[in-house]
Amino acid sequence: MSATENKPEPPSYAVVAGVSMRDLLASCAAATAVSTPPRLPDPGTVQPHAEHREAA
Alpha-carbon distance 50 to 56, whole Å? Predict the structure, then answer.
């Protein structure tokens, strides 16, 4: 036998890193939630601020 016949062939499939799809999707959702700025409130639902009384 020659040395070239003993070499194993590389796998023809992708190697998985061991992360479940649920964990992957959860991390993507968390990254989106952290990186998205908060929405501005609707103008019709905002109430004017009440004036604060001065302390005695």
Answer: 18
Q: Where on the phi/psi map is residue 42: left (φ > 0), alpha (ψ -120 to 50), or beta?
A: beta
In the block, tokens 């959860």 appear at 26
Residues in the chain: 56
Residue appearing with tokens 């998205």? 36
Distance CA 35, CA 7 (A): 48
pLDDT tens per residue, range 32-48: 999 999 888 887 777 77
d(CA 33, CA 54): 39
Long-range contacts of 29-34 (CB under 8 A, 24+ apart): none
pTM, two decimals, is 0.41
